[in-house]
Specification:
alpha/beta, 3 helices, 36% strand, 5-stranded mixed β-sheet, 154 residues
Length: 154
């Protein structure tokens, strides 16, 4: 199962469209905030979509946290500003562990990053405004997180 993971598009809807186009195997779409207005289009594409609001999403009614399961793995989604991810991942890791998540997806820092601590993957796809995004493949053998970039015009 493939999960498309995007964050921080900041108005670059074209980059979001390119990411979707370039990951046709994605069964689930996740958007981690700061561009929620353009990300709402993901909900109309006929796949599961999980969207959270970021610190630049104003009065959005989307939640700041979402959880879902895929192939037996609990996945936690957040923008990250309430977990102070710019200053470290300890708070996010504690929250993920307390909720039984094996994967925590976050944005906010605009830096692509992958960590694995105490049985939890912590994955930031980077900033879609800069052309960065990611995907996660969940298989019976485990979890694989991949950073990539949109190809084409962005």
């Amino acid at each position: 199962m493939r999960i498309l993971v995007c964050s921080d598009s900041h108005g670059r809807a074209g980059n979001l469209a390119l990411a979707v186009e370039q990951q046709p195997r994605a069964e689930i779409y996740v958007f981690l905030g700061d561009g929620i207005a353009e990300a709402e289009a993901l909900r109309s594409l006929g796949r599961e979509a999980y969207l959270v609001r970021g610190n630049c999403d104003g009065g959005s009614l989307y939640p700041t946290w979402q959880e879902f399961s895929a192939l037996g793995h609990k996945i936690l989604c957040t923008h990250g500003h309430y977990s102070y991810v710019k200053y470290g991942l300890d708070d996010l890791l504690r929250t993920a562990k307390s909720r039984g998540a094996s994967l925590a997806l976050y944005g906010h820092t605009h830096e692509a990053r992958l960590d694995y601590e105490n049985g939890v993957y912590l994955f930031n796809p980077g900033s879609l405004a800069a052309g960065d995004y990611g995907f996660v493949d969940i298989t019976p053998a485990g979890i694989v997180c991949v950073h990539t970039r949109v190809r084409g015009r962005f």
